[in-house]
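explain this.
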Amino acid sequence: MGSSNPVTDTERQRVRELHAAGKGRNEIATELGRSGRTISEIAKNLGLSFSRAAEVRQATEIRQADLAARRAALAQRLQDVAERELEKVNAPHKYFDWGGKEHDYDERWQDEPTPSDKRALLGVVATAIDRSLKLSPAEQDTEGLAAVDAWLKGMMPSAE
């Protein structure tokens, strides 16, 4: 049995144009007044596909690369915070007091922060470094580790 409504070359060309414009199978079928199955057959014969798996995979890879770059940039910023705060540990430190009966402001400088303030600064440093390493882990230096291990073994008294 033959088809009662054969597909024309004009329709084939229109399917190609609409597909290139990013239209989906059902949109093309509606516009041309054909069934989705007919449009799929035309597309198949023209070497076209409505599968978006490749596009989705590529978009996902691009998104993952963008996120990796953002994580690396954030890790760098956290490393900068750690270095900046570490510099404050042994630097002169300003202490101030605001209040009292007269609501006055007093300030004084010390050669370096108090032990509790140093501990707080080092806590910030440790947290920033920890988060930085979680976002962008350090590369393993197996040769360097082996050299340190050999050095340590050389420093230990022999068991002879």
